[in-house]
Each structure stands twice: as structure tokens, then as C-alpha cells.
Design the sequence.
């Protein structure tokens, strides 16, 4: 039976010791954010995740969702668990208090998503999509749209979806065909009315039995709209048309949108991935006509970071189980002599290669968690810091790091779950053990919210050249500042040399890409994936040096749990010795340029 | 709908141009091996694989196997397809003519397994296990055992299993508990009889409806046997006790072995993975008492190479489908301007990162195929070459390369199927598309027949030190010979420099490991996985340089298909630019030594 304990200690450490949650807590708008409050939130989320949500993870995978007569049934236990989830206020943790939210920093929303995704990624998809819809409507919705939808998305009684993909287009949304035509006004809401016709696919939470209503945010094309993405507008299309009741809104008549199929997928089987048919469905224009893609981009950074964090969250659960197995299962003897002579064999954990598998997982999870929370905290600064220069700097960093975190954390999240499976040997391949589900669930995160190749293109094609490299400077300047400031600190001296060297190599490669990519965009694209990985590894190395420094100080001062801080320093050493060298090969690969990628004619493959 | 075409052109190239099948054909014992014969065998295998076996791959995965009242039902179509498979003589292609086999070189048996595993890995497991049982009995069985079992294993009417694993032991077979006690003689066979009691798990083809009998080869412990692997003996335990009829043997009374459960697995769901209970089951001792493990080792090299080839075979099918998709699906525009201005979008194949994903697959598959067939051909020389020095040299190379091929080809096979899935984007995650099954199927190959970490330990702990490095010299000497001989060949000059450099670095690392590993076995174990990968990459680089040379010559002489040979040379360039650099980072990782792996106390993980 798989197990899961919310990693509260490490989350707290990442938040307070690395991400700088204290800096956010010092903002007037977040006066309520104290260590006690954060502890209470984490403990409460952990309890619900462990006791209610996690026990439905395996059964949900086995059972999957069913579509019957247009109605999607989620697996047994999901509706009740969702009810407890929204009663706990988890859908509104970082939402605007004006709409019933708790107004906590966005980073705590990400933390909450990490914890619940660790427990049950498919379950957490439903509220995750609602959050994306909330973010989008909160920025681009009209006052009336906000009044109708936001309170219900915040209290979780309604959920949301993002309807982008169609059979002929996923990455290339310029090919969207769904049509919207104006059709007077909706008397009940006072909103201009549009009628939508078209087919959407891969719509997560597109239809289900957890909420009383669903609001679909749909990319569609108005009559006479130009081709391509410039012709796309965004519409809110509720499953049930909202009707006023008392001071709020309730579901009214059924709208012309229905699930025509649900997909049979490799993983996240308890998440209903729907094909939706819009047949004269009534919708309201969100934001300006023709600005649908721009509206989408608003929520893209948070959605992409959230998916990156999914990679960490699944890896966490897989790692906990692999570690537990390595500490229970006896097989073979330590090469230097029996460690448990009284038993028939030693524990798996004595074997160097098993430790290597475990430490790659641990070093990824903890380093990536620190990095993701730091970037999430910066996103809060971008939105909330009253100093415009500080806010802009924070946004720049988030712009740069979002594709890096999305791609690196999901690629490595999948790799980490696989390494966890390997620790179990043949038992890992058996469904009952639970770990193979993590591999299948984790696999999607490298694909959705922009496949990882697209993230790399975003990094190299958009983020590097933006404002003549300004985003990148927000990364390199504090990094080189850290190197300078710690050159003589004996606690981290062993890391500073390698960090400085790899940073210099990355900077050199960046210059090369900028130069070559300017002359030929194919060169930038050919370097993109390897460059992204190299940048991620350097960022991870920075995080590990910071954590080693922090934990060395904690040990010196007798703060914190000793084994925890010793583990941090030792894992930093592991990362530098065993994972950072990959950056060198990635930089060597991209230095080869585009030629060897572009040479093959179609028939030569 | 997934597709599959047997890659006959590339297989022929690997056999004749790289592996040296002509050298085998020149041996007196293989006078019948002509290009025409090989062409006919490949064409016939390809036809059956494509038309009969491949169409059952997806349905077999969906349906899985069922255990009902002790009887395992394979998926619909399997029994009929298996009947056609054995009617074609495929179970006996490289078996001894004395027992009804065709006596073709073993390498053609591996080729046949590649083709059928590409079509349907789960289906091909059944005959694969029979081959392992055949190999073992052919070497260690008594004359009577051979007479009883081999003709039936060769004609495929009976099948075999390997019964090693028990709940408490997989890797560590010294913990086997199954007991065997002498019980007189079996009158019908004249064999000494033993009664076996115990439980085995993860027994592939342990029970099924494809054959009229199954012979289990079981590791068990005789009374008073010493603990550990020295106490293990090997027994043949038939499902139905053999009874003479006419000149052969037929299934007689039911024996005391039965399937108590079948596993629900991540993949190869159509392969029946059984829990078996032996309850006073009658068995015959194979080989000497207490020499069970030694007998196992005989068939281990071929079984491990076969599993390595499974990695290639699944990657082949996944790649074919990803390539076809990239040549059909239109999404986005080439960065340098529209390539298909008449269409709404360009083909996926125009995008550099998609090409990178595809070329990593292609470079792995074709390089690894050449390498695997070369080693398989050497195994034939080891068994059949009349020159004892040549035979020994061939065996040395096979000893060295078997763990390398097993681990590298299965790790990369899984990675390649994943990259194929990524080319499909979201569609790859949907079961109907077929590619996610390849990922799930491929995953097991890194685990069974010795998990890949064990392969690395075998390489570093056994194969490197063997005969003071003699195995390794069988690799490095011809490699450095190749480098010397081709230094001035303009067709491969571009590869020789990098190949020489990485070879020197690998030799250096080898010396370091030998030195450190002698002093502390933990050091060798900590380096093992990265060392194995580096050695594999160097071997792959050698193969690609050889293929570039061969194809350059073919182009110059107007031999072969032009696009095929151009593709080889371009893929060699891709491998050197984009894949070989990984060797550098692997060598850097292992140079860090064991310290960072061994430092964590259990509570510091």
C-alpha cells in the first residue's frame, strides 16, 4: 500500500529560508502572514490531503471516470472528498477577499496545490482548472462577469475549464475553428450574448459531478475575424446559464454545451478529460474581441508554474515510497561486509546504486521546490509589492523562470518517478504497489500547458531577447552577487568554485545563442531544449549552495532538526558531484549548432 | 491506429555491413547462410509479424490475461497467432537440427525476436521464455531430459519458464526457500524424482493456453543444502508429466504446480505474469546438485542480450509511429518561413526540436541495433568458430558487452519511446493512439533479467577485473585499431578525432575505477551506472563511425539506396554532435567518487 506524508518541514524551509516568504509577510497587504498562520495552513492542508484525498488516489486510477448519457461520474469518493475540500476553503486560499477568498499570498496557493497533487494529482486537477479560470476572469472579466462567477469559483461550488485545443490544433491555436456569433443580450445577466459552435478536445474537468455548475473559458472566432491567433476571442460559456437569486447567482437553464466523449489515458485517469461539443451555446465575451490570446497569456505563467510544481509533487510521493521500501526491503549484502548480520540480508539502502537513485530524486525535489517557491514568491511581489521597480524586477524573473520551471520540473518529475519505480525492482511494475501510477500520472505534465519543447522555444525565442536581455540579468546578477558574497564563506566554499565555473559557461552559451539566433532563428530553436536544461541546472546549483549555507548556519546555531540540516548539506554535495555535470554536456550539445538537426531530408529519417 | 513495418533494410545493413554476418556464413557449419536465405527469413518473419502478430498488440494490452479456476486465458487471437508462429518454425530458427531446429546462427534468432517484439512484445515473451529454457536444457540437461523436452520446445508445442523469484527475493537469489526432496524414480521417464514445495512470483508465461504443456525450470534447495546461492539446484518441473507415445513424449498426468494469481502490471499486459504454487510437484534435477546458479549463468548472456534487444524493438515501433505523425500532422510554421504555404500550417517535421526528438530515437535504434547484432554474431563465433582463440576472443567480448547492451538499450529504449510519445503531444497520452502502450511495455525491460543497476555492478565488479582486464582489451584493441586505420580516411575524418578523445577519457576512467575499486568495492559500485553508460556511448560512437564509413563507400560506389546511406552519414553526425557529449558528463559524475552517495545516514534522506 502506498503512503504519503505531506513534507511540511521541507516546505516550511523552502518558504522561509530560501523563497523569502518573510519579505512577502513584511508587505502591508500581507500583515496576517505569520509563521504560526503558515504552520496552521500547512498542517490543515496536510491532514486533509493525507486522510481524505490520498486514500482515493489508487482507487480513482483503477476506476477512472465514466460518461453515461452526457453525465460524467468521477470515481467513488471524489464528490464527498471535494465537498470537504471546498468546505476547508482550499479553493479560495489566495483569492481576493472581495469575492470570498482568503487573500493569502499566491505562493501559499502553489504550496497547497503541491500538497494535494502529491496526494492525488487527478483529484487536484478539478480545482486547479478553477483557479486558472478565476485568474483569467479576475483580470479580464467585466464587473458583472466577476460578480457572477468569481464568488462561485472561490467557494468551489462552481468549477472552470480552459477550452483551447481542437482536433486540428493544440500548440498552434491559430488554427482554432470554433465560431461565435453575436446574438443580442441575455436578459438575466445583462451581458451581450454570443452563440458558440464548435468542438473542443482534451478539456480537463470539462464535465463532472463535483460542482453544481461549470464555466468554460473558450477560445473562438467572431465573424469576419482575421485568420490566425489575432482572430481569437475569449468567451465564458457556463454549463447552466446563471440566474440571479438573492444576492448571488444560481444555475439556471442548461446551455448548449455537452461532453461527447471522455478520453482513455495513460494516467490521471480520475481526471475527466472531455471532448466538448458547443452547439449554439450561449457565451459572454471576456475582455476585448480579438484579444483572446492576450487574455490567455495572463494566466499562463501561473498555470505553467503550477504544472511544474505537479512534477515536484508526484516525485515527492514516489520518493517517499521508494525510500520507505529501501529502508524495509532486505536484499543482498553491503559490499564492505554485512550491515545486518543478524538478518538474512541487508537493507536496500546500503547499496551505492540504490542510494544514487534515491539521492537524484531527493536532490531534484528539494532543489526544485526551493526554486519554484522562490519564483512563486517573486510573482507575489510582481502583483503586490508597492515598489514598482521591485515589482517589475520580480515579474522579469518570473517571466524568465516560468518556462524553465515548467519544463525542467516536469521532465525531471517524470524521471524521478521512474527512478522511484526502479528502486522497487519488479514490484514497482505491479499496479498494486502504486508507484507505476505515479509514472503514468507524471507523464502528462511534460505535455500539457505547452509541451516542454514549446517552453524551451519560449525561453530562447521570447524571454532571452526581451528588453535586450533584461529578464536574464534578473537571474545572473543576483547569482553572481551570491558567488561574490560567499567566496570566502568556508561553509559554502566547496560549492562556489564549481558554481562560478558553470555560471560562466552558461553566460558564454547565452551570448552564443543570442548571436547565432539573431542571424538564424533555427539556431536558437535547435539549442533551446539543451539550453533550458543547462539554465535549470545552474539555478538548481544556486539553490543548493544557498541551502547548504542556510543549513550550515542552522547547525552552527543549533537551530532546526540536526538530521534535516545535515541531509541538506550532504545532498548539496551530491547534487554538485553527480547532477550538475550534466550542464556541461548540455552546453556541449547545443554548441554543435543546428546543422546536424536540419540536414535530413524527410526520406532520410 | 498505430502502424509497424519490419525494418528489413536496416536489419540487413546491420547484419552484413557491421555485425559481420559474412564471417559467420564463411564457417563450415553455416554453409547454408546466404544473403538470399537471410532475405527470405527476414521477409517471412516481417510478414507474419506485421499481418498476424502486430494487429493483436493493442487489443492484447486492453484485454490482458485472465485467470479463471487455475486456467490462464491469453487475449483473443493469441492462441491462433501462436499456432501460426510455431507452424512457421520460428521457435526453432536457431535451434539444433538434432531436435528439429533449423540450425541457423543465433544472431538470426535475435533478429527474429527483435522483429516480433517490435510487433508485440507481450506475445513474443511466450516463445522468448521457451528459448531460454531450451538453451539451459541443451547445455545442462541429461540426454533423457533433452530427448523429452527439446523437440517440444523447438516445435513450440510446449513452452518453458524460468522460476527464480520468490516474494522475499529477486536480485538476491541466495534467499530462495523453495524446497526439493528426493522421491525415488519416475517410472515413465526413468529420471530420479524430486518433490518441490514453494511459491514463485513474477513467472512470465507461468500458465497460459498457447501450448499443450509447460516446463518450469525451478531454482530450489535440496535437504541439507548450504544457505545462499551455493545451496541452489535446478529442476525441470513440467505442468503435465511427460509420458512416452510413439517416438516422442506427450503430456500425461497433471503435476502439482498451479497458478495462484496473475499480476496486474503497468505494461506487457498480454504476457501472463504468474504466481506459482509448487505443492509436491514432481521434478527432475537439471545438471549437478548445488550448481543451479551456474546453470542459470549459461543462459543469462543470451537472455540479457535478448532483453536489451527488446529495448531496441519497442523503440523502433514507437519511432516509426512518431515519424509518420511528424510527416502528417501540421502545426505551426517553420521559423524561417512557411514550407507549405498552401496549407494552414507546416508539418511537424520542420521544427528543430521535433527533429531532435526523432533523431535521438533514430540514432539510438540504428546504432544499438548494429552493436547488438555485432555482439550476437560474436556469441555465435564463441559457440561455433573452430579456431579456439577466435572463439575465446568472441566470448570475452560478449561477456563484457552483454551487461552494457542490456542496460543501455533498455534505459534508452524507454527514453526513446517517451520521446516518441512527446512528438504526439497530448494525443500521445491517449490510449487509442497506441504510443503510450510502448512506453508502459518498454519500462519492464530495465528491470527484469537483472535490474540495470545489477548489470552495471556485473560490468564493473566482474567483467572489468576478469582475467586482469582481458575482456576489456577485446573492446579497446579493435576500437583503437579502427581509429588508427581510419585516421586519414576523409570519409570519417570528422568522427575520428572525437572518437579518439572520448576513448582516451574512457580508458583513463577505467584505470581509475580499477584502482579505486580494488581498494574499496564501494567505489566501483558508486561509479558503475555512469561508467556503463559512458562505455555504451563510446561503443555507439564506434558503430556510427563504422556505419558512416560503410555508407560513404556505398554512396561512392552507387550501392544501396541513396537516401538510406545519406541518412546514415547524417545521423552519425547527429550522434556525435548531440548524443556523444553525454559521455563527458557521465565520466565527470563518476569521477566524484562514492563519498557523496554514501554520506547520508538513514534519517538524513
Sequence:
Amino acid at each position: 500500500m502506498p503512503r504519503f506524508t505531506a513534507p511540511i518541514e521541507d516546505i516550511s524551509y523552502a518558504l522561509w529560508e530560501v523563497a523569502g516568504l518573510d519579505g512577502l509577510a513584511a508587505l502591508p497587504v500581507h500583515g496576517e502572514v505569520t509563521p504560526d498562520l503558515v504552520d496552521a495552513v500547512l498542517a490543515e492542508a496536510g491532514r486533509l490531503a493525507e486522510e481524505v484525498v490520498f486514500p482515493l488516489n489508487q482507487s480513482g486510477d483503477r476506476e477512472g471516470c465514466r460518461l453515461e448519457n452526457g453525465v460524467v461520474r468521477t470515481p467513488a469518493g471524489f464528490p464527498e472528498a471535494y465537498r470537504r475540500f471546498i468546505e476547508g476553503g482550499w479553493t479560495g486560499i489566495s483569492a481576493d477577499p472581495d469575492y470570498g477568498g482568503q487573500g493569502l499570498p499566491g505562493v501559499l496557493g502553489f504550496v497547497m496545490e503541491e500538497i494535494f497533487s502529491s496526494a492525488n494529482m487527478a483529484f487536484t486537477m478539478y480545482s486547479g482548472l478553477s483557479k486558472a479560470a478565476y485568474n483569467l476572469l479576475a483580470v479580464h472579466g467585466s464587473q458583472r462577469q466577476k460578480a457572477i462567477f468569481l464568488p462561485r469559483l472561490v467557494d468551489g461550488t462552481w468549477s472552470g475549464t480552459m477550452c483551447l485545443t481542437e482536433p486540428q490544433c493544440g500548440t498552434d491555436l491559430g488554427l482554432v475553428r470554433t465560431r461565435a456569433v453575436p446574438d443580442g443580450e441575455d436578459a438575466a445577466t445583462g451581458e451581450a450574448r454570443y452563440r458558440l459552435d464548435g468542438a473542443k478536445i482534451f478539456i480537463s474537468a470539462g464535465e463532472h459531478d463535483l460542482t453544481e455548475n461549470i464555466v468554460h473559458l473558450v477560445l473562438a472566432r467572431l465573424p469576419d475575424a482575421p485568420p490566425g491567433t489575432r482572430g481569437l476571442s475569449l468567451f465564458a460559456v457556463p454549463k447552466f446559464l446563471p440566474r440571479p437569486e438573492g444576492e448571488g447567482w444560481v444555475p439556471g437553464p442548461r446551455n448548449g454545451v455537452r461532453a461527447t466523449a471522455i478520453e482513455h489515458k495513460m494516467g490521471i485517469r480520475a481526471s475527466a478529460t472531455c471532448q466538448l461539443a458547443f452547439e449554439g451555446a450561449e457565451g459572454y465575451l471576456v475582455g476585448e474581441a480579438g484579444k483572446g490570446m492576450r487574455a490567455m497569456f495572463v494566466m499562463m505563467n501561473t498555470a505553467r508554474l503550477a504544472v511544474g510544481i505537479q512534477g515536484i509533487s508526484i516525485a515527492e510521493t514516489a520518493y517517499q515510497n521508494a525510500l520507505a521500501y529501501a529502508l524495509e526491503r532486505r536484499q543482498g549484502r553491503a559490499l564492505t561486509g554485512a550491515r545486518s548480520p543478524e538478518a538474512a540480508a541487508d537493507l536496500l539502502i546500503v547499496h551505492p546504486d540504490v542510494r544514487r537513485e534515491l539521492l537524484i530524486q531527493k536532490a531534484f525535489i528539494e532543489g526544485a521546490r526551493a526554486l519554484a517557491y522562490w519564483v512563486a514568491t517573486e510573482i507575489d511581489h510582481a502583483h503586490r509589492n508597492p515598489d514598482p521597480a521591485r515589482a517589475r524586477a520580480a515579474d522579469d524573473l518570473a517571466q524568465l523562470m516560468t518556462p524553465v520551471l515548467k519544463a525542467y520540473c516536469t521532465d525531471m518529475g517524470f524521471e524521478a518517478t521512474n527512478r522511484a519505480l526502479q528502486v522497487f525492482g519488479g514490484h514497482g511494475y505491479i499496479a498494486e504497489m502504486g508507484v507505476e501510477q505515479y509514472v503514468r500520472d507524471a507523464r502528462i505534465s511534460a505535455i500539457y500547458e505547452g509541451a516542454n519543447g514549446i517552453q524551451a522555444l519560449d525561453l530562447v525565442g521570447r524571454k532571452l531577447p526581451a528588453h535586450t536581455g533584461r529578464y536574464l540579468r534578473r537571474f545572473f546578477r543576483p547569482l553572481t552577487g551570491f558567488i561574490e558574497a560567499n567566496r570566502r564563506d568556508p561553509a559554502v566554499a566547496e560549492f562556489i568554485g564549481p558554481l562560478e565555473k558553470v555560471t560562466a559557461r552558461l553566460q558564454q552559451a547565452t551570448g552564443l545563442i543570442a548571436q547565432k539566433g539573431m542571424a538564424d532563428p533555427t539556431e536558437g530553436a535547435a539549442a533551446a531544449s539543451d539550453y533550458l536544461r543547462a539554465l535549470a541546472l545552474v539555478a538548481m546549483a544556486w539553490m543548493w549552495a544557498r541551502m547548504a549555507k542556510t543549513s550550515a548556519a542552522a547547525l552552527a546555531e543549533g537551530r532546526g532538526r540536526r538530521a534535516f540540516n545535515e541531509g541538506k548539506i550532504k545532498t548539496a554535495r551530491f547534487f554538485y558531484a553527480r547532477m550538475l555535470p550534466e550542464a556541461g554536456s548540455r552546453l556541449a550539445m547545443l554548441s554543435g549548432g543546428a546543422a546536424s538537426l536540419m540536414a535530413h531530408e524527410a526520406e532520410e529519417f
Remarks:
- DSSP finds 19 helices and eleven strands in chain B.
